[in-house]
What we know:
- By secondary structure, the protein is an alpha+beta fold.
- Among the domains are: 89-239, TIM Barrel; 432-540, Immunoglobulin-like; 546-723, no CATH class.
- The protein has 13 helices and 39 strands.
- The strands form nine sheets. The chain has an eight-stranded parallel sheet. A six-stranded antiparallel sheet has the order 9-10-11-16-13-14, covered by helices on one side. Strands 29-39-31-37-34 form a five-stranded antiparallel sheet.
- α7 (184-202) runs parallel beside α8 (222-232).
- It is flat and about 85 Å long.
- The protein binds alpha-D-galactopyranose (GLA).
- Residues 22, 59, 94-95, 136, 143-145, 172, 211, 214, 237, 241 line the site of alpha-D-galactopyranose.
Amino acid sequence: MTSPLARRARTALAGCGAIALAFSGALLAAPGAAAAAPAASPAPYPDYAPTPPMGWNDWSYYQCDMDEQTILGNARALVSSGLAADGYDTVTTDDCWMSGSRSSTGDLVPDPVKFPDGMAYVGARLHAMGLKFGIYEDAGTKTCGGYPGSLNHWQQDADLFAKWKVDYVKLDGCNVPTTPGETDEQSYHDTYSAWSRAMLDTGRKMVFSVSAPAYFQGTADWDKVIGWSAQVGNLWREGADIALGQESGPAKWSSLLYNYQYNADLADLQSPGRWNDPDFLLAGDSGLSRDEMQSQMSLWAMMAAPLISSTDLTHLSADARAVLGNKDVIAVDQDRTGLQGRIVQQGADYDVLSKQLAGGERAVALFNRSDSAQTITTTAAAAGFGKGSSFVLKDLVTKKSTVTTGTISADVPPHATVLYRVSAGGGHGTAPATAITWKDVSTAGHPGTYRVELADLGPTGLSDTVLSLAGPDGETFAPKEVRLNRVAPGGSAGATVTVTGPGSAPPGTTVATITATARYRAGAAGADTVSGPLTVTTVVPYPSLASAFDNVGATAESATAPGDFDGDGDSYSADALTQAGAAPGATVTANGATFTWPDAAPGTPDNVSTDGQQIELTGQGGQLAFLGAEAGFTAGDVTVTYTDGTTSTGSLGFPNWCCTDNTTYGAKVAITTDHRDTPSGPANFGTKYQVFTNTVPLTAGKTVAAVTLPEQPAIHVFALALQP
Length: 724
Ligand code: GLA
C-alpha cells in the first residue's frame, strides 16, 4: 500500500483543482446541457434508512488512491474488528472508481486497473460478508474528481447500480449546470428529483444520500434545499467536507467543530428517517486525541447523525476501536425516536445538548470546546425533564452510574464530552453524583492558588472525604492532601491549594494537567471517588522567529528529499529562491518592508508553521509586516503584546504557495519562482511558487514586546518586521 506521504504528494496538485470544483459546483452554468427534467415525485422517497445509516467510506482517508483491495480489505477489517456487528454495515466506494468516459452504450465503466473484477464483484464480496454496498456518483456533468457525472443518465445509471446490487447511493452535486430560465436551486431540484424517481423505478431498495444542500450552505436557499432533500432522499450532506485523513490533528479538530456547529443548528430540519449528515467520523490513526475522537462520536450520536467511519480500518488503534464500537453511544445515535438532540445551554466555550430517547429517557452531553478543563453544570429540567427529585446518570464512556437530585455536572477535560444517559426516578443504592470544580482558573498559571470544591449532587451525604492532588513530575502542591470530612446532600466542601510548577519552562507553550481526586464514603453505596482536571498552560516566548521553527521551507535541488513545506514532502527550491533574491540571510525588501530571509542552509527547518507561538519582538512601527505563504487556505488572528501589557489583534492570511489568486487576504507578491522541489526532484507543474507580504496594524505610539502567531498550521511565516 502507498504510504500516506506518497499519497499526499500525488494528490497535492489535484488538490487545487478539486477544491475549486467543490466550491464552484453551485455556480457552474453549462447552457443547454440539461434537458427538462421530470417533475418531483409527490410521494416522499421510501423510508429506507429508519435509523441513521452506519458504515465506512474510503474518501477522507484514501481519496482517489484506492482500489478493490482497499475497499475489500477495509470491509474485512470492519467484520473482523466486530464493528460490522456493532452496526457499521455499509461500505461505500466514493469518487474515482470510474474510468474517464462512458462505454459505447453510455454505461459508467469501472476503472479497469483499480477494479479489474468490476463493481458487481465488489458488491457480491461485500454481500457475502454480510455487508451492504454503497457507491458514489454525481448529479452533474462530472464528479468532483472529474469522472463522468450522471446528468441526463439518471435511469441508465440507477439501473446499472441496481444491476450491481448496490444498496446505498451517495449522489454528489459538483458541476450541476443551471438550466436556462431556472435558478440553481431549481436545477438541482430537477436533477435530484429525477434521480430519486429513477432509483424508485429500478425496484431495488437503495438508500439515497443527497449532497445537494452542501452546495447551498450559507445561501438563502439552504433550508429549502434541505427541505426537498428530505422528500427525494433519506439523508443529505448539508455543508463542508470534513478534514481529509492526511490533515493534522488540530486541522481535523477545527473541521469537526465547524461541521458540528452548523449541523447542531439544523435540528428543526431533521425528522425520523430523514437525516442531516455532517460527514465522516475521523476516529482512527488520525492525530486526534482519544477525547477528541470521543467528542466527535458522542456529538454525532447526540445529533442522530449517520455514523460513517473513514479511516484505515486495517490499522485501527485500540482507542479508535473503543470509541467507534461503544455500544451505548451507538444506541443513542440509533435510538428509535429518531430525533436530533438540541443545544439546551451554551457558554462561551461549552455546549450542553439533550436528546430525547425512547421510553422517556434522555441523553445529555456536556461538551467542553475549550483548550482548558472546565466544570460544566446543567439541570435535569434544562435537559427537558419534568419535576423530579431523583435522576440516574449513566456515563456512557466510563459506564459508571450515579444519582442526582437534579444537578448534572462534571469537570470536563479540554475538547472532551461527557455523555450521560439520564432516566427519571430510581437510583436506590446508587452512588451519589459528585463533581469537582476548580475556581479562579481564568488565568491559570504557575505558581497559582486555586480553590477546589467537591459538590455532592445526590440524595446521600458524604463522609470520610479526602481531597488529594496529583500532576506530572515537577508539579508540587501545598497542601497535597486535605481532609474534608462530611459533605451534606446538596452541599459542597473545598480547600485552597497552591500549585507550583517546575522552575523554568522551555520557550513555547507547555500544558500540564493537574488532577484533584476526592475519596469518600456515601452511605449504603459505599466508597467512591471523583476526579477533576485543571489545565495549566505556561507560555514562554521564543527569543526569535527562527527559534520557533518547525518546518523545512526550502531544499536544495541536489537534495530535495528532506523538504516538507506543504506537509506532502514538497518545498520551495532554495536555488530558485536565491535567484529571486532570497538567499539564506539575504535582505528582502518588498512592498515597503525590509526582512531578513532565514539564515539556514537549504534542507534545514527554517520557516514557522504558525501554531500560536509567541515570539519576542521589540520596537515601534506603523504596522507589523510578515513574509510568508500558505500550504492551505485560511486566515488567523495575530496578537501583538505591548510593553505596557496591552494587546491588539489583526488578521493574517496568505495565498497558497502555488496555484492561487495572489491577492487573497490582502497579501501582495514578494517573491516569484517557477518550480518547487518534490522528494523525487525539482518539478514544474506549470504554475508559480510564490512568497507574499501581508501586514497587521499596530496601536500607535506603543512599543511592541511580543507577537503571537495565529493557530493555523497552514500559514507559514519566513520573516517578520516592524514597518515604519
Ligand atoms: C465532494 C464530497 C466528498 C467526496 C468528494 C469526492 O467533495 O463532499 O465527500 O465525495 O467530493 O470527489
